[in-house]
Amino acid sequence: MSIKMVEPVVNGINALNEFVGKAVSLLFIALVITVSLDLFSRFFTGKSTFWAFDINYMIYGTNFMLAGAYAMKHDSHVRVDVIYQKFSPRTRAVMDLFFLALVMIPISSFMFYSTWIDFLNSVGARETSMVSSWRPPIYPYKAVMPLAFFLLLLQSIGHLITSFVIALKGESNVA
User: Fold this and answer.
1) Are 84 and 92 in contact (CB under 8 A)?
2) C-alpha–C-alpha distance, residues 133 and 54, integer Å
3) What does residue 169 show for φ and ψ, rounded to 5 degrees?
């Protein structure tokens, strides 16, 4: 298989995670609105809304989880850059290859599988939130978790391919 053959795959993964990352960033607008409504309710009536806490943690959690692959695409995750940046691009690519193959892809795969099973169990039980008196269905929110780990797994595979190309050639044409 030629390196040229995998470029569209990696570019597709990158484009998907770019789209998802930008789309979920819009959820912060909804979060600001729901927090503001709850604050106004507390200020004017002295009572909090019965639904705001559940909605707010679901919006924030969705944003946080789905932005993980976007952050990986943009190399925004935490790492010890003081040491990492001292190496050549080829050496960094080899380090990334080991990390991705031995840690990131296995953990993302396991978490995708585990959260998928949890989601299916939640749907089967018609699980509801136990946090507030509102008790909204929680299974739609639990669908976000396997999706997030699937996107992270895809991005890890795309990054693995890009790192492999850089390790071989010293550079990559993948966006």
Assistant:
1) yes
2) 10
3) -100, -20
Q: How many other C-beta atoms lie within 10 A of the C-beta of residue 133? A: 8
State the pTM of this model.
0.90
Contact of 71 with 150, CB cutoff 8 Å = no
Q: Which two tokens stand for residue 55?
A: 């909605």
Rounded Cα–Cα distance for residues 43 and 33 (Å): 15
Pairwise CA distance, residues 114 & 109, whole Å = 9
CA distance 3 to 23: 30
Both tokens of 164, joined, read 């492999």
User: Which position has the token pair 């991005």?
Assistant: 155
- Would you state the torsion angle of the CA atoms of residues 32, 34, 39, 42, taken in this order, to the nearest 10 degrees? 180
- Reference 108, options 162, 165, 160; nearest CA is 160
The answer to whether 139 and 129 have CB atoms below 8 angstroms apart is no
Over residues 84-133, the pLDDT tens digits come to 888 999 999 999 999 999 999 999 999 999 999 999 999 999 999 988 88
Contact 43, 129 (CB under 8 A): no
